[in-house]
Amino acid sequence: MNPVALKPELTIANCELTIVLVGLDYCSIARGIKEMDIAKKDALDVLKETSRTFYIPIALLPSGLQAAVAGAYLCMRAIDEIEDHPELDNPAKASLLRTISQTLQEGTDGFSPHAFSPLAAYQNVLPEVTLRIREWAMLAPKTIAPRIWDGTAAMAERMAYWADRNWQVQTEADLDRYTFGVAGAVGLLLSDLWAWYDGTQTNRTHGIGFGRGLQAVNILRNHAEDLARGVDFFPDDWSQERMMTYARRNLFLADAYTHALPNGPALDFCRIPLALAHATVDALERGEAKLSRNAVMSLVEEAIANK
Question: Domain 47-305 carries which CATH code?
Answer without folding.
Answer: 1.10.600.10
